[in-house]
């Protein structure tokens, strides 16, 4: 299965990510009754780098250390919980996107994360909303820790 995931072209991953994000947006509009298009774009577009991130993690599963995976879980969980409004001071979007930029090598993840981060910065008033800065800080600190774990694992003799 992992081999098949590795064989997916970035274009296919992008198309799947856009389709899944669009489906979520349509569901939110039609079923959940969310009619604010700006809000829908805000919550829907982050799905594209999120799915690309998930693809990269699955494709590199054998290269990841347990500590790296253990760091992924709380970062992603906090970002998702933030979407429910349970964590007031940190932007879950900014935290996840900064973390993805620090920890992913795939150009698809990096470019989509940068594009959505630009949208998040715009929505948050280019920093007027302090949750943007706290999210960027939290995601960057977690990303730096993840990169440090990867470097330590690479230096360890087999």
Description of the structure:
The protein has 158 residues and is mainly α. The protein has one domain (2-155). Helices cover 77% and strands 0% of the residues. The protein contains eight helices and no strands. It has helices spanning 2-7, 10-30, 37-45, 47-59, 66-82, 92-103, 107-123, 130-155. α2 (10-30) packs antiparallel against α3 and α5 runs antiparallel to α6 (92-103).
Shape: globular
The assigned structural class equals mainly alpha
Q: What order do the helices and strands follow?
A: HHHHHHHH
Distance between the termini: 26 Å
* Count of runs of 4 or more consecutive helical residues: 8
Average pLDDT across residues? Answer: 92
Number of domains: 1
Q: How many strand units?
A: 0
Task: Sketch the major β-sheet.
Answer: none
Strand content: under 5%
Unreliable segments (pLDDT under 50, ≥5 consecutive)? Answer: none
Radius of gyration, in angstroms, nearest whole number: 16 Å
Which percent bin holds the helix content? Answer: over 70%
Helix and strand layout, with pairings?
Layout (H helix, E strand, L loop, with lengths): L1 H6 L2 H21 L6 H9 L1 H13 L6 H17 L9 H12 L3 H17 L6 H26 L3
